[in-house]
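Appendix B, Record 12. Input sequence as logged:
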Amino acid sequence: MSALTDEQRLQAFRNALTGDSSWNAIEAVSYRFDVPARASIVEIVGTGPVDWDDDGDGERSLSLPGGGFSPPSRRQRAPGQDQEAPFYDEPGFNCHATTVRLPSDTRPDRWSYNSTYDTVIYGHLYYRDFERRDASIRMVRGSRTEKPEIEKQQAERDNGRLARFDNSRAWIYYNPGKPAALPAVGSGVPATYDGDWLQQAGACLPPDMRE
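Logged structural output:
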């Protein structure tokens, strides 16, 4: 990225992305390397289609990108393997944040969202939170390894919980006919345009885990 000029970088992304399912047009692309965070940062500004689902009678729904999890795999060993050996989860952390600015010709109290959750299974945290505030709906979804190794007994307990794992995608809903009841109160979810996400990645963790 750093070897390209601004114009070369812009043209490369336009050639690769314009006209796909996410982008109609790309207006600007910037790149920088954040030394303290050891992160390559690419920012893309542009416009694209919003794939609303028409639910009838003026109602709409939208699945937000990066909002759900696939269920983890069961922790179980084949016969002949060491049944007492701990199970390993490679350390990792990821964070997705999406903000939808609500159309100005709609009432914010007509908008809602689906489930929030905060759970640890197999030593791995799965977290999703929403908040409706300032004519927007904000969603964060975080995942982090809390225990790289878990013992057989914990794995067996979590195998029994696996069927209740929430693998739903993140949905927002609009119903013009009546105020929406929200399933949970957000815990101060920031918008994507609020501050530097490299410095506030803790927002993708439950409140009791934030520094």
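DSSP finds two helices and twelve strands in the chain.
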